[in-house]
Amino acid sequence: MPDPDIILSLFNRIRSRFPTFSLESEGRKRLYLNSGAGSLMVDNCLQAINSYAVSLPPMPGQITPAEKQTFEFQQQVRQLVADFIGASRPQEISFHFSTTAALFNLAFALRSLFRPGKNLVVTDMDHFANISPWENLGLAQGAEIRRVRLTPELMLDRTDLLDKVDKDTVLVALTGASNALGTILPLTDLISDLKQKSDALVVVDAVHLAPHVPIDVRELGCDFLAFSGYKTFGPMLGLLYSRQETRDRLSPYRVETNQEAMPYCWEQGMLPNLNLAGLKGALDYLLELGKAAHPRESSAPTRKIFRLTLEAIKKYEQNLSLYFLERWKKFQSPRLRFYGIENPARVTFRTPTFALEVAGLTPAELKKLFWERAGIIIADGNHYSAVVVRHLKKNALNRVSLAHYDGPDSLDLFFDCLENILSH
């Protein structure tokens, strides 16, 4: 295991890489505690966009030096993403406008599987980007939609999941981590159990997981996995992993003249090279961080360095979560309510994302108070995990979501403001 102080020892250098921390609003510093809605952009991302905007032509090809440059650049970014998530080959990575768009494209590509007598399984834990595509396409094609419930403790009901999967299940959609609660699912074990019971394809929404823990799609055993560039310190971009062996089951929405081979069959029109440049910059930053944290591994394969980086981030963020939970428990106010994993002994099963409410204030009112009194940005709403919120018989919740560029000082400011709100 990495030294738990690795990220902390580099913390000032890390924070200096995110220009947003130097921004002010209304003459005061602002504190962004809403990384679950979109992470801050790292300086590498912004610099790469500016650099490639000048030097990179739009069209890839194999004849002129300029178009060769674009082709090689796009392949390089595919390989970086493949290394980041442990894919076997860059051809398994495709680029989309967003993760939601990627999953709608995937649902359309699998539409022939969704027919009467077949069923698709979704979960109440998921972001709706991994529910609505399957409901819309599945129902339109005559398939049954089965929903896996939550336990009273707001965990995914594993027994209910396995009971709802049978020989007629063609697809199971799972989240890597709850966008509302931060709860991490034991994907490797779940997918192993599912594959033993059914030939169903497994789709993982890893948007809320990717910036917090290492991902290896081959270890997970999933068939598809999607995540977002703008949640991983880069620009708006959706990334889709499609296991090569699934190609004969896919009929993507494709312009006739586009190539049938993966990944080109997924990509409708020209690629957004500047967004790819920003993504490359963000992933390069994570490699730089891994090398700084483990200088003896600087010449290791890219995939290993990514893993080392995310292991260090995971450990640091677990300590950050412990600090949050410790500070939270010091409040004795009956007005406070917390949702999600609260037991410090189970901190390995959560990201630093915390759902909460203050009785007597709507989520919008609490968000406004944090901004007005301390320049702190938190979230309100259902966070696109609407079933979780409905399960609690709520219309909305507040959410505080952190990343590795946040520290105990961020939480101290948050709790100071919360105490001020409770006392007035």
Q: Whole-Å distance between the termini?
A: 45 Å
- If you compute it from the alpha carbons, what radius of gyration comes out, rounded to the nearest whole angstrom? 22 Å
CATH architecture of the largest domain: 3-Layer(aba) Sandwich
What is the approximate shape? globular
Characteristics of this structure?
424 residues; Aspartate Aminotransferase, domain 2; Aspartate Aminotransferase, domain 1; four-stranded antiparallel sheet; single chain
Brief sketch in words of this structure:
The chain has helices spanning 6-9, 11-16, 43-55, 65-85, 99-109, 132-140, 158-164, 187-197, 217-220, 273-293, 302-329, 363-374, 386-391, 408-423; strands spanning 24-25, 28-29, 31-32, 93-96, 119-123, 144-148, 169-175, 201-205, 224-228, 238-242, 336-339, 353-358, 376-377, 379-381, 397-401. With 424 residues, the chain is an alpha/beta fold.
Q: How would you sum up this structure, described in words?
A:
The chain has 424 residues and is α/β, with parallel strands linked by helices. It folds into 2 domains: 6-42 and 303-423, Aspartate Aminotransferase, domain 1 (Alpha-Beta Complex); 47-282, Type I PLP-dependent aspartate aminotransferase-like (Major domain) (Aspartate Aminotransferase, domain 2). 40% of the residues lie in helices and 15% in strands. It contains 14 helices and 15 strands. Strands 4-10-9-8-7-5-6 form a 7-stranded mixed sheet, sandwiched between helices. It has a 4-stranded antiparallel sheet with strand order 11-12-15-14, with helices on one face. It has a two-stranded antiparallel sheet with strand order 1-2. β8, α9 and β9 form a beta-alpha-beta unit. The longest helix is centred in the C-terminal third of the chain and has 28 residues, at 302-329. It is globular and about 65 Å long. The termini are far apart. The model has no long low-confidence stretch (mean pLDDT 93).
